Amino acid sequence: MTLPFYLLLRDGKKTWCQGYCPRSSLYMTLGKHHRSSRKIPRSFTQSEVKYGVLIYFLFSLLIMTFSTLRVARGQMAPMLIPRFLIFIPLPVHLVPLLPFPEVPLWFTHLSFRIFSMMMTTTTLGLILAKLYKPRTWCTICPVNTLSGMYLMKKKDASLR
Fold it and tell me: Would you give the DSSP letter of residue 94?
């Protein structure tokens, strides 16, 4: 989760978004088979939806962090099923490919939280790719939004 920001600081551009993001590659590959004539809504490219998504995912990271700490302290039971949009449990049982009996429950909980967040973003991105253009998710992606904010501040600082 930190690699996109490392590349941003190292290269001074959106290296992750432009070349390494697996979601971007997935959306572009699937987008070759479907072209929508709908334009991306202006609220996606301006600030309303972008910052809403950013706030939602920062909130998700806080929930993920504090719930994992609570599981590690024995203050709550671990979440052992994926959830869509943090709160909607999915009736799916995921079987571990490599069972590790020594893995602490807090780590399993954290893994399910990260998986849930990645599954949610991928699903939303696929829906947006179908409705609009293949990389519509990229316009509201929190990594892209934070990278853009950083680059704007850096540009403003260099103009002074």
Answer: P
